[in-house]
Amino acid sequence: MSDILSYDELEQKLRQATIPVTAAELHGFLTGLICGGASEQKWPIFMNEFTNNGEAYPTALLKEVSALYHDIQHSLEDIDSFNFQLFLPENGDLFNEIDALSEWTSHFLLGLGLVQAKMDKETGEIGEALDDLQNIAVLAYEEDDDPEELAESLEQVAEYVRTLVAVLYAHYRPYQATQKTVLH
């Protein structure tokens, strides 16, 4: 896990490479691809197409993003530990953090939708989860809202999104969510 870039490091590298997404957007997108079941061969193609206008990532950055992708994948596969975390800034700017959660969620839905093209037909618990995520993707706040209430709401909504990601992963990837690796 120590070879994974921090949020700020990834943000800086994306800007240096002139890739037009934030670290939160990229993490959400990759998580959506994983939850939807994108193959090992397809996820980089989707990533280039939808996060960098069809252009390949620089080799060094691709290596780091690939490590992030596999870290996300491993944390989702270990459903019992529930170690998956959203990749959001923690810079003390509450409004920036709220915007990042909204952007993360929007890009998660984009990644998921690319792989699960019929997700708009989902009903029941899964349909509700997707509807909730769509609402979170367009979160709004007023600049004069109480910061303490906003911070508490942000924490609750982020935890809810994290839970919904686990639910959707288990729904779209039931084998991977329950598979245990046995080391001999």
Automatic annotation (TrEMBL):
It holds the Pfam family UPF0149. InterPro entries: YgfB-like, YgfB-like_sf. Transmembrane segments: none annotated. SUPFAM superfamilies: YgfB-like. One of its GO terms (cellular component) is cytosol. It comes from the Bacteria. PANTHER family: UPF0149 PROTEIN YGFB (PTHR37528). Belongs to the UPF0149 family. NCBIfam families: PRK01736.1 (NF002477), ygfB_yecA (TIGR02292). This is UPF0149 protein NCTC11297_01391. It comes from Avibacterium avium.
